[in-house]
Amino acid sequence: MEKKDRKPYPSDLNNDEWKILEPLIPPAKPGGRPRSCDMREILNGIFYETRSGCAWRMLPHDLPPWQSIYHYFRQWKGDGTLERMNQTLRTQIRIADGRDAEPSAAILDSQSVKTTSVKGVRGYDAGKKVKGRKRHILVDTLGLLLIVIVHAASIQDRDGAKLVLNKAKSCFCRLRLIWADGGYAGKLIDWVLKTHNWVLEIVKRNDDVKGFQVLPRRWVVERTLAWLSFNRRLSKDYEVLPETSEAMVYVAMIRLMIRRLVTNIQPTGP
Questions:
Q1: What percent of the chain has pLDDT over 70?
Q2: Is residue 186 assigned to a domain?
Q3: Full-model pTM
Q4: What gap in Å lies between CA 141 and CA 189, rounded to an integer?
């Protein structure tokens, strides 16, 4: 049941969303003090922080203590819970859409974002003129996140792509085709074929067309990056560790997918 002692925030889980997400929460570890936190409120706190962009210490007082919320976020980041949640929800959406659980095709792209004064890995992207980090993402044809790797913005797209694809190799056995933009052209195409036996197809812009173009396949991953931009915590990279930045991307996608699942499940009618 929804809590009655506080007004809900727009980022809160509703009852239907909670029913889907609750089974994906790891059980409490045996021994020690029993778990006393309301796990639904813990998730509400994590979603609030990602959506609003506030610091952990500035979470509202009608949510659980920020230390508890951050503790679970850090724990789930480290043990892979957030990645598994993303994978489970993505699989449910694909099956509901009449697709195979695992994709056979994907789209690759990157996004350079500024960092703040916090310490950590960073670099300068001369092409985008951004000093910070680069989010490299691989999505399926629905735009759902498969892999995210965060690294210094100074690393070239071709080199960053190898980090993403090497990780994807052990996760997606059906993958055969990857679309990408012209920044990935060149030797990377042969490397992908020889190393992973995948086809890397470059979707090029038509130079004869002036102004904005909707490019086949590429618009899907660009839309996913736009989805991420609705979360203020992702407007810049505020994290010390790139792994924390990756976890924030997974949180944003989990919130998006759980809402989509409920929208698709709920019956329509008068």
A1: 91
A2: yes
A3: 0.91
A4: 20
Domain that holds residue 166: 101-232
Instruction: Give the pLDDT confidence score for residue 213 in this predicted structure.
Output: 53
What is the count of structural domains for the chain?
Answer: 1
Q: How many CB atoms lie within 10 A of CB 30?
A: 5
255 Cβ partners below 8 Å, 6+ apart? 11, 47, 50, 51
Closest CA to 105 of 78, 130, 142: 142
| 62 vs 228: CA distance, rounded Å | 26
User: Cα(43)–Cα(89) distance, rounded to whole angstroms?
Assistant: 15
Dihedral sign of CA atoms 183, 184, 185, 186 in order: positive
pLDDT tens track for 18-49: 999 999 999 988 877 888 889 999 999 999 99
Q: In a 3-state reduction of DSSP, which class is residue 264?
A: helix
pLDDT tens digits for range 58-95: 999 999 999 999 999 999 999 999 999 999 999 999 99
**Which pLDDT score, from 0 to 100, does residue 207 have?**
57
58, 107, 124, 208, 222 from 85: Cα distances, Å: 26, 21, 33, 44, 23
Residue with tokens 């924030």: 248
Inside any domain, residue 225: yes
Q: Which residues have a Cβ under 8 Å from the Cβ of 67 and sit 6 or more positions away?
A: none
Average the pLDDT over 209-235 and give the result.
Answer: 82
Rounded Cα distance between 235 and 114, Å, is: 8
